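Notebook entry, structure prediction.
Reason for the run: the old model in the group folder had no record of what sequence produced it. Starting over properly, with the input documented here first.
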Amino acid sequence: MNLLFIPRLIAELAVYLATVVPDLLPIVLTLATPLALGALCGVLCERSGVVNIGIEGTMLTAAFMGYLTGFALHGSIGAAAAIAAGVVVAMLTGALLGLLHAWLCVTVRADQIIAGTILNVGALGLTAYFNRLIITPSGLGGAGVIPPIVFGLGPIALATLALVGLIHFLLFNSRWGLRTRAVGEHPKAADTVGIDVFRQRYQNVIAGCALAGLAGAYLTLESTGSFQNGMTGGRGFIALAAMIFGRWTPIGAFGGALLFGFFTALGVIVRVRPAGGELGDILAAIPSFWYAALPYLVTVVILAGVVGRAIPPAADGVPYEKEARA
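New structure, fully documented this time:
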């Protein structure tokens, strides 16, 4: 084998990706949108000291409830109004699940990993059951889909870009952000200076899960226009990986979401814009299931390399018990 074969192939791949990715950036952004919203949920929760591995279940439940609302109302109030109502219901669903998670983790002081697992398992079973009970037997059409506004991106995808910048700015340049970081790093000290640790954690978990609900609405009402059992497909867990990759910052988490979105889109890219020559033959010969598995493989590799060096907020996952005052 030519010793220059592999370096040459890597160089050709780099040139190929640099050529095609800018044209297909909207695909990457659409795939990254639910990951970015889920990662923002994780940032808000964990920056205030609450671990939330229930993002997957929150997204799935919100996706179902948003779709069900649009599905039920599109024939009576019109498609646009039904979809708008579905988005609102999805976010409210996420907020209610956030309230439940906050109650379990902050007030009850239950194990936060177990609380998130309950959300995930319950969402998977209940949405599949009600989908089979309500939607599948009806034989009616879908809820419709939100049309794109610019560059193939819909309003939720565009709003995600704005939310990333806004939350990053507020987290590091506002009173709310200072209090959030305080209760996530040293809740006892925050309590001493008059910050209500319980209220701050409740607010952040509820707001974060509302964003996860928006991610669910995106999946059913802006991306696909349908609901499928287990359609989140692990996106909630990839969102957590993006959050860790981004070191618990909104912009960093968005960068992680774009990275995972890119690897998700790679299978589409090599078929929509195939490479030429020997590189094209090699990429075309790779089975499609390897491209489908690539984001999850990248998640494992990145977490293996990043987790040991990424330092979470000091009080992340640690329940706070308010001391009795004499």
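Summary: The longest helix spans residues 79-107.
The old model has been moved to the deprecated folder.
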